[in-house]
Write a structure and sequence with these properties.
Elements (H helix, E strand, L loop, with lengths): L2 H23 L2 H17 L10 H23 L10 H4 L8 H20 L2 H12 L4 H8 L3 H21 L5
Helix pairs in contact: 1-2, 1-3, 2-3, 3-7, 5-8, 6-8, 7-8
Amino acid sequence: MDAREIEKCIDDFGTDIYRFCLKLCVDKTNAEDLYQQVFLKALETEWTLDWAKNPKALFFSLAHNLWKSDRRKQARRSTIAPCSNFDNETEMALPSEESIEEGYLQKELFAKVRQIIQTLPEKFRIPLILFYLFDCPIEQISAIIKKPPGTVKSRLFKGRCLIKKILEDAGYER
């Protein structure tokens, strides 16, 4: 892949890749490092992009694999850093037609769901993030995490059930 192709990829879907890195790492500095590693790795490889297929999925897959590799390395070194929350204000803006109380309760619920998602096992968390935050179709998620589409559907269902159960146990109702 040459520099022009990388530049076009960054322009076309760089923000989505960065947001995905941010969701994986939960830390802005680590997300920025991962984001740079993704495009550096793409620049180093001898790939040719097929724009008819979805090249965005290739970068999601590359980000996911680099993140997993880094996590394995950290686990081997036994120095896993604690997760920290990212800026809530950038993700949730209060629409003007909502009351302040409803907005606060909505923010609280979103924060709780985000916290629950971060505590879920990786096999449920990654498909949930890709499906709901990045609107990736099931086939694309299947290609990214290298699992069959049925497995992705099953993990999405089980992840939703886990989130629902935890919210119900915490006293949240529909």
